[in-house]
Here is the input.
Amino acid sequence: MGNVVLVTGAARQLGGRFVRRIQRDPDVDRVIGVDAVAPEHHLGGAEFLKADIRHPAIARVLAETGVDTVVHMDINGTPLGSRGGRASVKETNVIGTMQLLGACQKAPHVQRVVIKSSTSVYGSAPRDPAVFTENTPPKSLPSGGFAKDTVEVEGYVRGFARRRPDVAVCVLRFANILGPCADSPLAEYFSLPVLPTVLGYDPRLQFVHEDDAIDVLRIAAAAPRRGTLNSGTFNIAGDGVLLLSQVSRRLGRPTLPLFLPTVTWAGTAVRSLGITDFSPEQIRMLTHGRVVETTQMRETLGFHPSYTTAETFEEFARSRGPGLLPPASLARTVDRLAGVLSARRGASQ
Amino acid sequence: MADAKVIPFGEEPRARRKARRAGHGGRGTALAPVPEARTDPEPPPAPRPTGGRTLDERIAGGLAFLRRRITGDYEVDDFGYDEELTDQVLMSLLRPLYDKYFRVEVKGMENIPAEGGALIVANHSGTLPLDGLMLQVAVHDNHPAQRHLRLLAADLVFVLPVMNELARKAGHTLACAEDAQRLLERGEIVGVMPEGFKGIGKPFADRYKLQRFGRGGFVSTALKAGVPIVPCSIVGAEEIYPMIGNAKTLARVLGLPYFPITPTFPWLGPLGAVPLPTKWTIQFGEPIATDGYPAEAADDPMLMFNLTDQVRETIQHTLYKLLVQRRSVFF
Here is the structure.
């Protein structure tokens, strides 16, 4: 079980890390990384096959290598590197998943499929409950962008699970993954010197540490441990919640509150200039926030993240270097003020 | 109870009203507890001159608070509730309104359990949801355990900027069964006003007439969580903005459930948004236990309707009782 593992999206940081990690697992005999481009990082001795999952060739790869576990990590919000725009990303996400699942359906030896999804399937709307569980129906379905991709991908995965009931299918809905080398749009946003925010909203955010993401993918890709079940859909997030205002203060980056229409307009302008990928659903997330319930992750999947949301963020902030208003120096200023005040009062008495 | 009519203000001359009050003085005091009888949970902090110590401590406390805030070193829960900010800032901002302006008198605080969840069901009125905020201060300041009330608010609150942020930080959340149940299961005191916009936006002529209680979803939520329902009647909030008209077209254009027209509101501009200084009474009734029902009871519509009616009747009767005891709208 779990002898031959195929990992898609191996050219990305997270995919590469996952390949290197499971390569060291004693239960795993062979790891095959797949991506459309060759990775810049090493894969720790794992095989790499340059194959585009959007093409039917992936079926041949599956048939020839006798893969029994497929870890589909090539579902992303941003293009890899500078090449390709939103269209090719969407194609990889949706058509790629369709092709891959089609290939899996034809491959009798596939026993386990793990999908790296995202909590963006829930959307972000003011009329949603404050905390999403795995079976909360979203009030407003994401209308486009990565969020819509994930909704469609999950739809195909459900179809696949119906057609191949013998395959264990595990969908992991990750909250925002952060870590020292994360290259997500959110990480990019947090690197801005001044964070534009939406005036009058303070979204609640949840983060998952990269290490935890790798660990939970390993749990999902291996045979279930005693008393746990690793097929189904699970929300993956660190404990606790951070508000965007807290996040900016902990990062030491000042915020620039803008009216919502201005933000939307500026987002479109920036996007058309191609500076960053600040998509509408990203703006919605930074307006209304999103919090998911992780009881299933703990009790059914048996995974306990080692980093809370706050710890994940602390780690991330450390890797980013101080901003314009480092919290440590602000704290020092307040302490100095306290010292001056108490000295004054002492002198006046 | 049918003769329990509201005393419309401005109808009789001040002198007559004063005379009547003087004549009824004995009866009034016999029925209504003395307004000053409300015991302050905490004595006001000692004035500065005697000991510079308290002031020093206060400065130090304030600076520590500032330090935590500007470095982001504080906690919020899953709902975005910022307990520190609520206690230190938001409550202090509301307290003058609560103590000095509306002079809220609270009765029946012993009906709120010292620990564990409870669902407080209150009437809703006043054009702007000040009654919810006052209820929150009332529970926190008068309960021996200083419990925090988590209000369920309309979705409009979470659509509007600034309101969204403040409501989440003050511990409010969207009025939906999921959120309510999650809070109740965590052992929080949850406040709900099931009349919703029908209650808060009703014309002045309908004051103190309870509207339909939604579909009674709050009862099944309380039943599922097995927590008691505490009926709560708020008197005084109806008269803060006497709504004599509703500009429905304008409301539709602005996407609001109603657009109030009061004797002062659109005419005096922002000055019209100043509420009338009415005297408030908040009475908590006897809790209605829900833990005696079997698990499937939450799916029994008849039981739900009966319990909803029971809660509604209790609140309505208490409202009438309080109105009879009330000497005047403003005192």
Observations:
- Chain B has 13 helices and nine strands.
